[in-house]
Recover the amino acids of this structure.
């Protein structure tokens, strides 16, 4: 408990220091909370023990008096997540405030990621060195379970390689190709009534030297003669498309979904 209190106090001290410009003391505008998000991005793993909610924090450097800092919330979850309020409310002397986002039964979730943008509505409330916008990414925590090893082929690389396939304990219809193209980036799909269903688009993990992140846009997917096919409509970067192609996974003999 002492460690937690120390961290909170240290955070408040940092926020107070953020209200200072180099070489001078910054005069806090009247009524400003000198607020900031802890970072510009937060990744949250959803657990059954969380009680169907995630919690987002805001810090402030000016802890004198009570304060409410309004935020604009851009819901990119299609209404799946519901905020408890639109303000971060600080009690007198309090350096950290929170907003809860509730969601339906966690068992309804697979491996998809949900994103929410929060922006401090009044710029005068932001610390000079503070972070005014944060993107929250929430995903159900999943326990991988090994399924099999087969052969994966990609038109992008024009190569094939040995590839593991996993499912998860919590969502047995979700399948994962771990570190598929690039280490650290998984490809995921769901089996729905015997048919593989992929996201509308997903990051491949590949970063083009000139055009940045490469995304895969699926067109169709099916299983035929022991091979899982993914027809790609486009391999796309921000500047445009490299055209389509095919990805496939040769299942080991005797395996079926």
């Amino acid at each position: 408990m002492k460690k937690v209190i120390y961290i909170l106090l240290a955070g408040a001290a940092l926020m107070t220091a953020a209200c200072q410009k180099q070489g001078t003391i910054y005069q806090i505008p009247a009524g400003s909370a000198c607020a900031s998000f802890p970072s510009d991005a937060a990744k949250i793993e959803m657990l059954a023990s969380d009680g169907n909610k995630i919690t987002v924090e805001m810090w402030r450097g000016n802890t004198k008096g009570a304060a409410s800092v309004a935020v604009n919330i851009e819901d990119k979850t299609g209404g799946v997540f519901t905020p408890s309020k639109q303000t971060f409310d600080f009690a007198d002397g309090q350096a950290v405030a929170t907003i809860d986002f509730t969601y339906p039964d966690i068992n309804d979730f697979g491996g998809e990621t949900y994103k929410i943008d929060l922006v401090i509505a009044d710029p005068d409330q932001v610390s000079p060195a503070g972070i005014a916008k944060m993107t929250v990414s929430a995903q159900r925590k999943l326990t991988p379970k090994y399924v099999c090893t087969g052969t994966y082929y990609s038109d992008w690389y024009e190569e094939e390689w040995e590839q593991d396939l996993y499912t998860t304990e919590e969502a047995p219809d979700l399948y994962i190709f771990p570190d598929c193209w690039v280490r650290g980036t998984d490809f995921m799909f769901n089996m729905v009534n015997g048919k593989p269903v992929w996201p509308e688009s997903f990051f491949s993990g590949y970063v083009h030297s000139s055009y940045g992140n490469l995304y895969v846009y699926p067109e169709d997917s099916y299983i035929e003669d022991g091979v899982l096919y993914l027809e790609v409509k486009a391999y796309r970067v921000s500047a445009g498309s490299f055209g389509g192609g095919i990805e496939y996974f040769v299942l080991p003999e005797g395996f079926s979904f």
